[in-house]
Specification:
The protein contains 13 helices and two strands. By secondary structure, it is an all-alpha fold.
């Protein structure tokens, strides 16, 4: 609870404070200060984790930092981070009839576009992770600090569910302030749909953290990948379909749930650190 309260205090004070100071913009692409605030606030979970680790038992901060440099965590952790979720998005996009709006295909099958766009997003995830907005700033908190402590108190399912709810609601000010951040979906519809998706991603992240024996690197990479793919998956400006924007948000949640189900089916191969 101390971690959650400290994280919310850091991030929300930055986001809401700058939003009020910049005249309450209705788009996060507006004032440069607002974009900088969103970026800075994304480090709230990591900063809270660093503070609490530093004031707890001796060696706790060093142990926490070690998660960021544990590159040798097994190929299964990297494969689990980079493959199942983009594949789930790809298959859903095709199965649900999303057609690309891009011109100039010259009669080529849309599948060629799918097979180009989604793998490229895997590499976009690297750039997003390195930039630090979200992946680096958050994962040190959600997976690096909160997850191992919740696992000590209960099972993986309980821990993943708690983190998913906290993680989703932590975004509350941003999704309430900026309609373009939620792709124009009404707030009352977006909040539960987004929460479902984040809970699914929380289960995915927990499993990858366990497969990687406590390494944060695959989690940071996947978080960057989610941010990169999230901007193009089921987006009505990019894909023509019969589905509403609300349905697109729900489809994203389905992809996360399918990924979590697949990884849990492989659970026997992972070892807890």
């Amino acid at each position: 609870m101390a971690f959650v309260l400290l994280t919310v205090s850091i991030s929300w004070s930055i986001w809401i404070g700058i939003w009020l100071a910049t005249g309450r913009p209705n788009t996060f692409h507006g004032p440069g200060a607002m974009m900088a605030a969103i970026y800075a606030g994304s480090f709230g979970p990591g900063v809270a984790a660093a503070i609490l680790s530093a004031i707890s038992r001796p060696g706790s901060l060093k142990e926490w930092l070690r998660g960021f440099i544990r590159f040798r965590c097994g190929w299964r952790a990297y494969a689990a981070a980079l493959l199942p979720f983009p594949i789930a998005l790809l298959l859903l996009t095709i199965a649900l009839g999303y057609a690309p709006r891009l011109e100039g295909l010259h009669g080529q099958a849309p599948i060629l576009l799918y097979l180009t766009v989604f793998p490229v997003s895997v590499f976009n995830g690297v750039a997003t992770a390195i930039m630090g907005a979200g992946p680096l700033g958050e994962e040190g908190g959600w997976r690096g600090y909160l997850l191992p402590r919740l696992l000590e108190q209960g099972g993986e399912v309980r821990a993943s569910l708690i983190i998913g709810i906290v993680w989703a609601l932590w975004h509350l000010p941003i999704m309430a302030m900026f309609a373009d951040w939620r792709s124009g979906v009404p707030f009352v519809a977006y909040l539960p749909l987004y929460t479902l998706g984040v809970i699914g991603l929380s289960f995915v992240m927990s499993r990858i953290w366990l497969i990687g024996r406590g390494s944060l690197i695959p989690c940071i990479w996947l978080h960057g990948l989610v941010n990169a793919v999230g901007g193009i998956a089921f987006d009505r400006s990019l894909w023509a379909s019969r589905w509403s924007p609300e349905a697109g948000t729900f489809h994203f949640a389905i992809a996360a749930a399918l990924t979590a189900t697949f990884l849990f089916s492989m659970k026997g191969r992972a070892q807890r650190p």
